[in-house]
Give the backbone structure.
Amino acid sequence: MKFVAVTSCPTGIAHSEMAAEALEQAASSKGHDIVVEVQGASGAPPIDPQTIAAADAVIFAVDATVRDRDRFAHLPSVEVRTREAIDRAAAILDRAAAAAQAAPTDRPAQAPTPQAAAVTTSAGAGRGEEVRRWLMTGVSYMIPFVVAGGILIAIAFAVGGAVDVTEVTIIDDGAVRFPGDVDAGILTWLGAVLLTIGSTAFSMLVPILAGFIAYAMADRPGIAPGIVGGLIANEIGAGFLGGMVAGLLAGAIVNALKRIPVRGTLQRMMPILVYPLVGVLAVGGLMVLVVGEPVATANQALSDWLTGLSGTNQIVLGVLIGLMMAFDMGGPVNKVAYTFGIAALDAGSFEIMAAVMAAGMTPPLGMALATVLRPSLYNQAEVRAGEAAWIMGASFITEGAIPFAAADPLRVIPSLMAGSAITGALSLLFDATLRAPHGGVWVVGVIGNWALYLVAIAAGTAVTAVTVNVLKSLRSVQAEPARTTEGVTVGA
Amino acid sequence: MSTITTIDDVTGPELVSLDLAAHDARSAIEELTALFERAGRVTDRTAYAEAVWAREQETGGTGMESGIAIPHAKSSAVARPSVAFGRSATGVGFGAEDGTPADLIFLIAAPEGADDLHVTLLSRLARRLIHQEFRTALRQADSPRAVIDIIRREVQL
């Protein structure tokens, strides 16, 4: 017979692997075929859908949640704990074979039931830990977009000039403009192409984050409502924090839909029609009608307030600009500070723009430094994101810090704000000036007092890196007693 | 990022005890944790052993009917991914379903942010434990050095 199996355990190191090995051994000695997916820490690839389609039965040897369980919904199944598979793999294969024989032969191919797709809470995982897992899932799908988009934009600035590239439109009303069509040099044109591609990747950050937070919560039916919610977060300018709200809303709404008891035809309609339609409508409606207006109002209020502060103490103003730049990195609060800088630039005052840019560079730089100083506090994906964050920080692409902030907002965002506040204040104190709206180190030629400007950036970078690492290591110490009783630090 | 990871990064003769004194699971865990601490691999011996023990109690024990136990925990008290091995002449009760005492005990320590290579290594070791020949070789090994040689041979990356 042909079997597929999933093994999983909370730490994903020992029991899931042993159960997989035991099942493989027993299957080969009984002359069965088996393909095992270990949903553990080493990130084994999922089983090929064709293999699943051809299987006679599925075995779940699990102590934790099965990811994407609905892939197997059409198969007869046997579910045991990992230790049973380790101790008695042969007997479990016999049970699976019996289940396969007992199953009706005219079973509908690929008819996932909503119940099977429901996400069960992994045994003993604390609430906070679970939220962190959702966020981390969203972040891990978002990171490739951040890295690709961020680096392409940085290269665009380097190749074509940070200001010039933004003044060339490549795709104009459906028509692509080639070097001959634009009033710019070939390098500027090339930079503008790169910027177009990079910006498109960036426009997906928030939708992907939202979509895959919802996916972690509610499995595949969460993706569509999450992504649509994220697109609306983009549209209303709610930034990545808005995207996190959209993703959490989408996951919660789809999970609530799954709990509605239904039978018969309606039950089959749920995953095809009801989850997508109701989920997208509910998330979209909330984002547009409930979240949208307060964000816009708050923006306007914040903007007026900041403008009113223009004449006050420079250090206070620098601190405020820093706090705002780092708070949501490309979100509404950041945009208010950035727009304030642009307005000052247009009015011929160059100090504020300098502070804005410096404070927007330190979040990615600070996180990059933090991952280098204490790599053990970050997972593999974050360390990689940290490497790319150097380039993004240097290019004033504040979004480079979003993966870190979205994964652990309560520790990361305050640290970013602390560093940016210092940098913003120092930049104004040093009377640094900037005659360009963006560009990072690529516009160093139009920065006045640039040596001290770099000192200001270095200071904020160091403050962010040290603060975030201290906060993160405090968490692992403090959480220790609580977590051992909940059993999430340790695995079966 | 890191240099090549081998089994010698996670274990060594100094982490092997062929004659555990312990007669119960908790003291066996503490005895092997002491080896970690002496080798500087665990910064807080009490915190780590408590984490392992809490998990044992919660899951009913990591003992298997084949006489193996793999108590383990991920904890910030762990400095480096590590494996200690203890052999018990009498066997120690680790809660196997049929009551078989464990005579081969692998204590696995993972830090909070263990990297992929180390995880892979620990996973491969766990997989080998399913094999009768590996267990037999471990039962017959006559020195800590021999145990490490056997593990290295089985778990080559």
DSSP finds six helices and five strands in chain B. The radius of gyration of chain B is 14 Å.
